[in-house]
Amino acid sequence: xxxxxxxxxxxxxxxxxxxxxxFLFAISLGLFSLNDNPIKSISSLLNIVxxxxxxxxxxxxxxxxxxxxxxxxxxxxxxxxxxxxxxSQYFGVSISLAVAxxxxxxxxxxxxxxxxxxxxxxxxxxxxxxxxxSLAFLASVYARDxxxxxxxxxxxxxxxxxxxxxxxxxTMFAFSDYxxxxxxxxxxxxxPVDLIRIILLMQLDVAAIMGYTGAVFNNFLGSSTGIISCFxxxxxxxxxxxxxxxxxxxxxxx
Length: 254
Hints:
Number of helices: 11
Structural class: mainly alpha
Number of domains: 1
Mean pLDDT: 84
Oligomer: single chain
């Protein structure tokens, strides 16, 4: 807890993180102020959450890992277990970014859209923060060089935000003559960004204009069971990269 507290207090004073919080707050407040319909504002805010939040989280976490390398070496010279140190750093970074997101985006949403959709947007944003910090640590631990590590982190963000959707669309067009809706539903679980996007779009009743495919998504992901299943899957997206990173970190020559 002492390490988590130190990392947290160190990060929240970071000017970049403060600018990130102010940016989210200004965007959120602006969208809700310019639009009388809070649902439309949430739809616009969703794009910020799905693109900007993962990008900032993965770059900031990767940079922090490399910049605190000497601090890590110092602590490892003390009677501190590697597992505890790594987990403490992860939670310190994740909680800092999560607090920044909540202050910048969560509070305006709770003020202007205190409903289920607003709550899901906040939970989705917090979940993606933890997911992409986990992926950032995975890339950073496996790549000793800072440039290479941040490059891998950027590629991961680009893959989950853009490339994966393009591959799914190509698959749907290629096999459009076959009933592959359930298969596409399964594919969604392999992308945490898509899971959050689909959950919120189902709540916004966008499935009504998506035909049979939208009906399949809505029947499962639009229900409480589907939403819980999605967040369980996101939990795996947090834990699995974290376990892989922890295993590598435990054997790494610092």
